[in-house]
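Saturday, quiet lab. Running sequence design on the structure tokens for the scaffold JK sent over.
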């Protein structure tokens, strides 16, 4: 059983809200006036994320299941969440099995499946099915997409201020982009907070980092990776998967089908390599950190990245929430030294 029987306090979960464990076409539930909350952010930002992991283990989850899955399961079992949307195609089989264990306890469940390999017609049909399940239409979801466009454009500006003007830190970039998967549960408040942040960031002096880095992979479970790197003169100017989650309008999509076809995350490593290559060049990166999650099948993509990306890359692994462990810190420092030496 958990060491403490009292779970960490959480913000109250609105009874009508739906939890998500992976990025979904958010425009659809929002068009149906449903509130959506990303459980990943709730889990990792709680006062004691490990509590939820221990609860999952106490209920039989194997330790060889990744900490995100165990944590999300523990959270779903604890937080009084009655409805959820799961991605059943294009995510991972662990998510699918977690959903199956939770089904009896959930009052409302929706699913969305990205067609793998990506196919326009299949995705369009799946979006229509998803909209119908919510009692809305794809046309209404497209209208919601147009309403959300200024927020996505503001996020693109935040990203540009990160890599082009160096006025936004890699940690701030990461936080804002991962928060865009559900717009903080309230798009209007999110938009106002984002505009305030951008006004402050634009007034800052530009930083002058010695190195420009990208972080690849699922969002790191360690809490201080970006801060650790930036304290050593290495600015993180590219957060690969968080940028995908946020669907920035620096590559405007005409329709929702276009938007979710351009989203690389569900479709295997090939589209990711294309996206990473383009951003490495555009952002003039000196090196990449490939973050991998212990017990995640995506770790295997490291082989492809090493074969396909012609840029120095360090692969690190995280397991539990918390700061970087001493070995990882040492490896990061050695990697930065090598990059400094390459610069001469
Ligand atoms: S880290 Fe990997 S195994 Fe864990 S939920 Fe994400 S994709 Fe699945």
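Result came back. Writing it out in full:
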């Amino acid at each position: 059983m958990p060491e403490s029987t009292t779970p960490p306090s959480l913000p109250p979960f609105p009874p009508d809200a739906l939890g998500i464990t992976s990025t979904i076409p958010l425009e659809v539930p929002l068009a149906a006036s449903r509130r959506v909350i990303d459980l990943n952010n709730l889990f990792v930002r709680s006062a004691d994320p490990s509590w939820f992991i221990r609860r999952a283990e106490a209920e039989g989850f194997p330790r060889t299941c990744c900490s995100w899955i165990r944590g999300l399961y523990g959270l779903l079992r604890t937080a009084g969440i009655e409805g959820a949307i799961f991605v059943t195609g294009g995510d991972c089989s662990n998510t699918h099995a977690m959903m199956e264990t939770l089904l009896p306890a959930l009052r409302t469940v929706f699913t969305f499946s990205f067609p793998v390999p990506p196919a326009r017609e299949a995705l369009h049909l799946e979006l229509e099915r998803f909209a119908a399940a919510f009692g809305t239409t794809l046309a209404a979801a497209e209208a919601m997409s147009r309403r959300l466009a200024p927020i996505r454009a503001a996020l693109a500006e935040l990203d540009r201020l990160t890599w082009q003007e160096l006025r936004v830190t890699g940690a701030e970039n990461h936080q804002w982009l991962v928060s865009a998967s559900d717009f903080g549960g309230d798009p209007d408040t999110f938009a106002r907070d984002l505009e305030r942040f951008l006004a402050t960031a634009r007034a800052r002096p530009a930083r002058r980092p010695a190195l420009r880095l990208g972080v690849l992979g699922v969002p790191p479970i360690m809490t201080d990776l970006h801060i650790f790197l930036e304290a050593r003169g290495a600015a993180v100017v590219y957060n690969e998967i968080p940028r995908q989650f946020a669907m920035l309008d620096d590559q405007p999509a005409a329709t929702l089908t276009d938007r979710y076809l351009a989203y690389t995350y569900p479709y295997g490593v090939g589209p990711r390599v294309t996206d990473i290559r383009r951003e490495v060049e555009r952002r003039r990166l000196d090196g990449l950190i490939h973050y991998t999650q212990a017990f995640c099948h995506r770790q295997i993509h490291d082989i492809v990245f090493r074969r396909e990306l012609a840029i120095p890359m360090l692969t690190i692994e995280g397991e539990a929430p918390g700061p970087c462990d001493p070995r990882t810190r040492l490896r990061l420092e050695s990697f930065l030294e090598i990059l400094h030496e390459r610069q001469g």
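Notes for JK: The pocket of iron/sulfur cluster is lined by residues 66, 68-69, 92, 94-95, 218, 293, 296, 298 (CB under 6 Å). The chain has a mean pLDDT of 94. Ask whether to fix the surface positions before the next round.
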